[in-house]
Amino acid sequence: MSFAPPLPGFRPRPSAFALPILILGSLAVWTSSACSVLGGRDTAPRHTKVDLFEPVEFAFEGRSEVVETLPVLRPKHPFHELLLSWNVETSSDIGLAFEARVGRGPDGWSPWLYFGEWNTVRPQDAEVEFENGRIDVDHFTSDVYWERVQVRVTARFSERPAGDAWGAVQRLHLCFTDRRVLSSFQTPVPRTRAALPVPVLSQREQDPEIAARICSPTSLAMVLGLAGIEATPRDVALRAYDASFDIFGNWPRSIQAAHSFGIPGYVTRFASWRPIDKQLALGNPVILSIAFGKGELDGAPLEESSGHLVIVVGFDDQGDVIVNDPAGESAGRVRRVYRRDQLTRAWLGHGGTVYVLEVSTADQS
User: Fold this and answer.
1) How many CA atoms lie within 13 A of 71 on its CB side?
2) CA torsion 303→306→308→314, rounded to 10°?
3) pLDDT tens across 172-202, in order?
4) Do 208 and 158 lie in a common domain?
5) Are residues 169 and 210 in the same domain?
6) Which of 149, 243, 252, 334 has its Cα between 20 and 30 A from that of 138?
């Protein structure tokens, strides 16, 4: 199959505000809205998010494998990156695997690309790339624009599952990104937000064999602690571990790991501090994926990083950002304040990716 080259000079239309709820077939209810505020000082990468909230359920009916293909989805604007995350529940004898394919114009569809799994193993023949795109560990990226996507979920049962083996996709979240509309990292000063009482944990005080690699599990453990859920960074790391890549920070696995402890959430992208301010107002700290070079983030415990995670817990009266940085030398040095302009560049310049963990909606009984 041959796909068209990039579209020189093409830019999506500058209107990506709220879309109506779409009922697609009998399988799912999708809600779609813009993640970014477009125009003026907020102009930045454009992101559109889509959530499936109506569960897709699987039950053992004598078959070792069941495939559910969801309806085709067309986001408001073309995209060249796609994030996918999920919240699932399964019995011990079933695993779920997630794939997606992208399409555009008369070119048809890409192959089905393997995004990841839960409670099962990655097939040796899992397809992760084609001529014009690939899965970069935990998200799809391409040099060309795409117009539509379709997701399929495969349930795999163990050789001798119990009669009541079951699984359910309770949430499936997609974020479509066009990072080429970027013109400025300037965003309005967020309102002052007193820091949420997120417990402090340092990854450096954890098992030295994995301490340098667990900024994501340590961040998740701190947010779980806010919800009253006792889980050590090692507990979270073992559950989030991606054996295919030998990493602890795979984005969708991290989201599912948090959900498995009782906190629903999703990975997405934002283009300003406004949606983060809204989450803080709800009581939800937000985890940022950042990258920065030497001298680019004053006061950081790391001199530089090509990929790190910090938790936004509030904003001070100067509009600077109060964070829990898991790389702090000790628990007492985890809470820090970073200059908003520097952290904005470290975050938005790295794609604007966030974990949104919905502590405020979790059952904390």
Assistant:
1) 14
2) 70
3) 999 999 877 655 666 777 889 999 999 999 9
4) no
5) no
6) 334
Query: Which tens digits make up the pLDDT trace of 60-96?
Result: 878 889 999 999 999 989 999 999 999 999 999 999 9
Q: How many domains does the chain have?
A: 2
Quote the pTM value: 0.86
CA 171 to chain centre: 13
Burial class (CB within 10 angstroms; exposed 0-12, middle 13-18, buried 19+) of 15? exposed
Query: Inter-axis angle of helices 233-240 and 215-226, to 10 degrees?
Result: 120
Q: What is the pLDDT of residues 305-337, one digit of tens each?
A: 999 999 999 999 999 999 999 999 999 999 999
Place of tokens 């067309």: 74
Torsion of CA 55, 56, 60, 66, to 10 degrees: -170
Q: Determine the structural domain holding residue 292 and report its residue range.
A: 203-361
* CATH code of 80's domain: 2.60.120
**Closest Cα partner for 358 from 190, 133, 173?**
173
CA distance linking residue 344 with residue 40, whole number of Å: 17
Cα–Cα dist 282/266, whole Å: 16
> Which residue matches tokens 């571990």?
241
Closest residue by Cα to residue 66 from 42, 105, 94, 99: 94
One-letter identity of residue 273: W
Give residue for tokens 């990854």. 203
The CATH number of the domain holding residue 215 is 3.90.70.10
Identify any residues that bridge with 134 across adjacent strands, giving them in sequence order.
Answer: 129, 141
User: How far apart (Å, rounded) are the C-alpha atoms in residues 160 and 163?
Assistant: 9
Angle CA 264–353–117, to nearest 5: 55
Using only C-alpha atoms, the chain has a radius of gyration, in whole angstroms, of 20
Phi, psi of 218 (to 5 degrees): -70, -40
